């Protein structure tokens, strides 16, 4: 008897959550068997897009590695040295573009593909 009452309470709680979610809008869809299913609309995500930031950083390292693989170590370092002689913004760019272990490793992997 207690289990039946607990199951009923759980179903009632789930229905309350679904009803609250549908207060923001809902979408009806028909399944292949003809059953019409009503689902709440998805809310827009809030917060910082972490996946986008990770993709941006990874893309930056791949870009540096492609430049390093195509130019070679010596030419790449010469160009970074020229950037260090420039204005303040160019000096910050030079610090970002210095060879690091991650870009060096990726350049080693990409080197046979570039040449």
Describe this entry's structure for a reader.
The protein is mostly helical. The chain is 69% helix and 9% strand. It contains five helices and two strands. Strands 1-2 form a two-stranded antiparallel ribbon. β1 and β2 form a beta hairpin. The longest helix has 22 residues. The model has no long low-confidence stretch (mean pLDDT 89).
Provide a concise account of the structure shown.
With 115 residues, this protein is mostly helical.
Tell me the span between the first and last alpha carbons: 75 Å
Report the uncertain regions.
none
In what order do the strands lie side by side in the largest sheet? 1-2
What's the count of strands?
Answer: 2
Q: Helical proportion?
A: 55-70%
**In percent, how much strand structure appears in the residues?**
5-15%
- Helix-and-strand structural type: mainly alpha
Evaluate the radius of gyration.
28 Å
Question: Which terms would index this structure?
Answer:
5 helices; 69% helix; mainly alpha; elongated; 115 residues; two-stranded antiparallel ribbon
């Amino acid at each position: 008897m207690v289990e039946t009452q607990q199951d009923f309470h759980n179903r009632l709680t789930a229905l309350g959550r679904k009803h609250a979610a549908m207060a923001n809008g809902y979408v009806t869809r028909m399944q292949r068997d003809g059953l019409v299913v009503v689902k709440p609309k998805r809310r827009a995500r809030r917060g910082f897009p972490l996946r986008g930031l990770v993709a941006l950083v990874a893309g930056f390292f791949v870009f540096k590695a492609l430049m390093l693989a195509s130019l070679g170590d010596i030419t790449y370092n010469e160009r970074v040295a020229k950037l260090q002689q420039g204005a303040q913004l160019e000096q910050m760019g030079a610090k970002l573009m210095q060879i690091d272990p991650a870009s060096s490793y990726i350049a080693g992997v990409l080197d046979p593909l570039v040449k």
